Fold this sequence. Notes:
It is a single chain. By secondary structure, the protein is α+β, with helices and mostly antiparallel strands. The protein has one domain. The protein has 1 helix and 4 strands; from the N terminus they run ββββα. The protein has one helix at 50-64; strands spanning 3-8, 12-17, 26-28, 35-38. The radius of gyration is 31 Å and the shape is elongated. The mean pLDDT is 85.
Amino acid sequence: MPLYAYRCDADGPVEVMAPMGAATPTVPCPTCGAGAVRVITAPRLGGARRDLVAAIDRAEASRTEPAVVSAPPPRPAARPAPRLDPRTASLPRP
């Protein structure tokens, strides 16, 4: 639900949450009851989580400039062989 900004002449800024598109031109000030006029403010987009914003930015960038892969990723390094118990080292292996 968006947060709408209003300004009361006596008490200053007033913020009201209302459904999108349902903001009225004036609301009563919660302090003095006078009419507070709606003001236009910059959108507050910086309040989102950093990882969410990064994911949105990557998705937006891939729409117009997709990353091109020129080669498959390198193979993982081979794991060292497990150390065998010397008592069972001479037994046949499957």
